[in-house]
Amino acid sequence: MVSLQKGQKVSLKKSDGKRLSRLMVGLGWDAKEQKSGFFSRLFGNSDNFDCDASVFLCQGGKLVDKDDIVYFGNLEHRSKAVKHMGDNLTGEGEGDDEQIFVNLDEMPERYDKLIFVVNIYHAVDRKQHFGMINNAYIRIIDPDSREELCRFNLTEDYTDMLSMIAGEVYRRGDEWKFNAVGNGTKDTGLSELAKRFA
User: Fold this and answer.
1) In degrees, to the nearest 5, what angle opens at C-alpha 193 toward C-alphas 133 and 43?
2) Which residues neighbour 62 within 8 Å (Cβ) at sequence distance 6 or greater?
3) Are 132 and 120 in contact (CB under 8 A)?
């Protein structure tokens, strides 16, 4: 398993060096313990910390169609190449909070980049931001062997950030690579995030 730093890129291959035909992207996070009482009501708390992972399927590096967004309201791409395993409403429990499966062999040729993002549902109303989250990560798994191929721990201070561009899987010739992005944004929802790549 390769542990990545921000901005690092890695080729996606099986541990024996063979081409990867499928992958699973796992995203995880934990809500920090917040002080209770008056100040938690004033400055927000971690109750019902609902983070949503989504993926933008891009053509020429751009998101050109709203149907190319796979998220909790559109769990499977029309190509059948990308499938979201459903929404985790709290972030509680061990392991990945949300998982997205990608069949690279079934990916239509026109798509050259998949951008994985996470946003906090109703972050402004709930006075929540990514500075209130611990242990956030994105990882790539070979679903055939269940081996973790690479992991990027999001360790920056994301105070006041409402959304996160976690990483991207992109095509270079006949090879797929992963780029550890880890950029926080103040986009209040998925539609605002999507505009960045349109």
Assistant:
1) 35
2) 197, 198
3) no
Using CA atoms, how far residue 67 sits from 76, 82, 109, 187, 192, in Å, is 10, 12, 17, 20, 15
Q: Across-strand partners of 142?
A: 147
Nearest Cα neighbor of 133 from 36, 66, 45, 64 is 45
pLDDT tens, residue by residue, 4-41: 999 999 999 988 889 899 999 999 988 877 655 544 44
pTM of the model: 0.90
Residues 6+ apart with CB under 8 A from 191: none
> Cα–Cα distance between 53 and 6 in angstroms, integer?
19
Smallest CA-to-CA distance from 2 within 124, 167, 120 is with 167
